[in-house]
Amino acid sequence: MDDTTTLSLADPLGNAREATAEMLRSRDHGYSLPQPFYNDERLFQIDMQEIFQKEWLIAGMTCEIPAKGNFISVQVGNSPVIVVRGAEGRIFAFHNVCRHRGSRLCVSDKGKVAKLVCPYHQWTYELDGRLLFAGTEMGTDFSLADHSLKPVQVKAAGGYIFISLAEEPPAIDEFLRTLEHYMEPYDMENTKVAVQSTLLEKANWKLVIENNRECYHCGGSHPELLNTLLEWDDVTDPRASQAFKEQVAACTTRWEADNIPYAHASFGLRNRIVRMPLLAGTVSMTIDGTQGCKKLMGRINDPDLGSMRILHLPHSWNHCMGDHMIVFTVWPVGPQETLVTTKWLVNKDAVEGVDYDPQNLRRVWDATNDQDRILAEENQRGINSSAYQPGPYSQTYEFGVINFLDWYSERMLNNLGEQSAHLR
Ligand code: 3BY
Ligand code: FES
Ligand code: FE
């Protein structure tokens, strides 16, 4: 059936789109958002359509699908997506939706298959998405070629796999080239996920990101993290002390000599990379600040690389140290429900129980994630009150939150504008 002949329901979100745009146009800059942005079902649907289905998202790491037939799957709002390694090392991404009657093809988070076989009636697809087999029951004029899996845009760089459900996603290549350069010392093809976690938080995804974008709350909540993390993201931070600036100068001289990228790189407000030292005398985000993995990553031979922080809006932050790296991704589930996945990566040749103890590796961020979960959930509970009104962010402590909301607001207004232009 031709798409153009399909009947469609009138856009049930029409009024909500207008109201959303208006609330963003009239919001108080530097203040938290009006309540519906954090708890309304329609606004959640609009976030999904205008942000998560249009942006590039980090589906996982290339080292998670090292061989032909390896796949990982993710859930972008209502849309399940599968990322699979095909022939000749190529990475493909597809909607995880069978072209017969729509069943999900891959039901697990990861695995290995020879072909993609639907569990419902066994339609069988090649790893490049072509339908190979639909039995003889479909009749003689059935066309296999017309029923390939629907592709999803995919790009890999620096060990990361980015997907986008948009037909024309935003430009990302310049950031990816830079990411590739910054990740070069890590030799990402020779890494592995040592351990991972999934945390369901009863809070809107924007509260999870807002919480991550500031360390105003760190002193009150994160004793384990503060054993090693210095909260300043840059020497330009007005709160940065002289001692910190001197530490940065000493570290960057060493990194420069080892050809380890560190300089601040920004791509609008969407992406940001910078390497910053950890607390003097510590080298890794472990409870005591010592290495969590004895074997360093890639070509790295100085364990003291601080932490390279990578921000990718709308949904990921990362810490790359000398011995391991941590990848965080945020997946909205509902207006007040969000999944946070954390992956700890180490050198592929590091031996569990000898070079690293996964329980030790994960301890700091397990504690931190759970503390942040509680903060986000309490934030959500208060915001749901009839008494909530947007409150002011600190310009010095919470500029990262202001930046995130500026980015979000700009994207939403831009995308909602496109929408109404189409309807006109
Ligand atoms: O991701 C981080 O390292 C920290 C945790 C809390 C604030 N954020 C910048
Ligand atoms: Fe997939 Fe029938 S729904 S084979
Ligand atoms: Fe936190």
Automatic annotation (TrEMBL):
Pfam families: Rieske, Ring_hydroxyl_A. PROSITE patterns: RIESKE (PS51296). InterPro entries: Rieske_2Fe-2S (IPR017941), Rieske_2Fe-2S_sf (IPR036922), Ring_hydroxy_dOase_asu_C_dom (IPR015879), Rng_hydr_dOase-A (IPR001663). GO terms for molecular function: 2 iron, 2 sulfur cluster binding; iron ion binding; methyltransferase activity; oxidoreductase activity. Keywords: 2Fe-2S, Iron, Iron-sulfur, Metal-binding, Methyltransferase, Oxidoreductase, Transferase. Residues 56-163 form the Rieske domain. Its cofactor is Fe cation. Gene3D superfamilies: Naphthalene 1,2-dioxygenase Alpha Subunit, Chain A, domain 1 (3.90.380.10), Rieske [2Fe-2S] iron-sulphur domain (2.102.10.10). CDD domains: RHO_alpha_C_GbcA-like, Rieske_RO_Alpha_N. One of its GO terms (biological process) is methylation. This is Glycine-betaine demethylase subunit GbcA. It comes from Stutzerimonas kirkiae.
